[in-house]
Automatic annotation (TrEMBL):
Organism listed in the record: Pavo cristatus (Indian peafowl)
Highest taxon listed in the record's lineage: Eukaryota
Keyword Lyase tagged: no
Cell compartment(s), UniProt: Membrane
Predominant location category: membrane
Upper taxonomic lineage: Eukaryota, Metazoa, Chordata, Craniata, Vertebrata
Domain MARVEL: 28-169
Record protein name field: MARVEL domain containing 1
UniProt GO cellular component terms: membrane
Keywords, sorted A to Z: Membrane, Transmembrane, Transmembrane helix
Entries under InterPro entries matching the protein: Marvel (IPR008253)
PROSITE patterns registered for this protein in UniProt: MARVEL (PS51225)
Amino acid sequence: MARTAPPAVPPPPPGPPPRGSLGLHRAFLRSPLGLLRLGQLAVGAAFWLTVAAHWYEGAAHFALFAAVLVWLLTLGLFGLSALGRWELVPWLGSRWLLANLVHDLVLGVGLCTAAAGIMGHKAGQKSYCNLPGYSQRCLYGAYLGAAVCGAVAACLYLFSGLYCLARRCRDQRDIV
């Protein structure tokens, strides 16, 4: 009597690739984009904290919204890039450099420039209270400081957007 082999058990379906340990992506942190992201986070925080810490009205609400939105999105991009986990983002993970480029040039430059313009306009409206002898509360310095922080943040977003654009034009798909 011939012995028949037991039916072969099919191998289990392949699972998701194993994730490595969670650690910092040091090459990103040392790259120009990583340093620009740190600067954007610092200046962006100074921008929205300056607006939020002082009494604001009218269009300054939009400036605060724009500053906080861009800052939070930058924080998310920085966190995913610093941990090297951008592949986990559906649809954007394979286009991470393009996502950074659009974030920097459209959202970062556009919204920070608009918010800085609003705060600069409000500073111009309050310039009279900078005169000696004016006894009421003066928001000129706060509005001017917020406008300067917004303009510096917009410049940093422009630099990082141009850096991403140069990398994309050289067909370098990786962020570092």
